Amino acid sequence: MSRRTGTVQPGDGHALTPYRPWQLLTRSLFHLHLTDEGGAPRTWSVDLRHGGDDDGEVRAELYVDGLHHATSTLPAVFPVPDGTIEVAASGYGLRRIDHVGPDGSARQLVPDPASAEGWRARLDRKHPALSRSLALASASVLLVALALGVPQIVEQLTAIPPVAQVVGGPWAGPVRLPETVNIALVVATIAASTERALRLRYSRVLDGGFFGGGE
User: Fold this and answer.
1) Fewer CB within 10 Å, N- or C-terminus of the chain?
2) How far apart are alpha carbons 71 and 16 in whole angstroms?
3) What domains can be seen in the chain, in order of their start residue?
4) What is the reported pTM?
């Protein structure tokens, strides 16, 4: 978790709204069962709207037994029994959402069954072979995008006059991709990064690269 974390503000007690089907790509909802200081079982839920609030800021909302308990900008660190709940996001969804114990051990929260992350987790349980194929395809797409994107970025940089003077002129990449191929590559990269985000998989190289959305 980044040293720069959001400020936690107290909640206002409003009720957690149910997850709706049309929120699959705009909302993440995760749950965790913990026992409070008095020994009573509680359900801690983290709700996150990826489009942000009215001010455009993306916030993690913490609920206890369905009632709003606290809010924080990202990355968020919420104090809870036996540790903290830590939340970080990328440009395509969540990077991590873990309960971190005093000893540093991390346990991922459970996605709401109705959420996109819940659907992806269910696919992994019921159809592991298909799940692995999708994961491999996503990683392959991002590797291809990285391999094709780096030369284009270098070519654009060396076309800047001050840079061209230093390196001895513009550099021409070995491959020229048609505009339609570049557009298709961007679309495929967004789909691949979204699939990885649904599994809370994040790599600075793959997911935070030239087409990625690192925090």
Assistant:
1) C
2) 13
3) 8-111 (2.40.128), 127-198 (no CATH)
4) 0.81
